[in-house]
Amino acid sequence: MATIQGLIVALKEFSGAVVLVSHDAYFIKAVCEDDDGDEDDEDEDDEDRMLRAQEEDGGVYRVKNSKLDRLEGGVDEYVKTVVAENNKGMRGGAGRPI
After folding, report:
1. Structural domain containing residue 74
2. What is the mean pLDDT of the segment spanning 41-67?
3. Could you tell me the pTM of the whole model?
4. Rg (Cα) of the chain, in Å, rounded?
């Protein structure tokens, strides 16, 4: 876990662009949604979080069928979408692979 935490810190401190592909939802949320699992940020109030979020350009995007969509709900929205599509496919829908 220390290796993952180290990578999270390094990527968050990196000032350039990053394309992050992973099956690890915790890792993606920690890097892209400022959810590093640390509870030390409890002193920060909602206004401070909103101001900090406005300064950041990062986000979660999904590429599907040659189309790029920003997921405003982040990783949680992605998970919901994929689960719904998989459930539709399992019910005999004409779902295509994700």
Report:
1. 60-98
2. 69
3. 0.57
4. 16
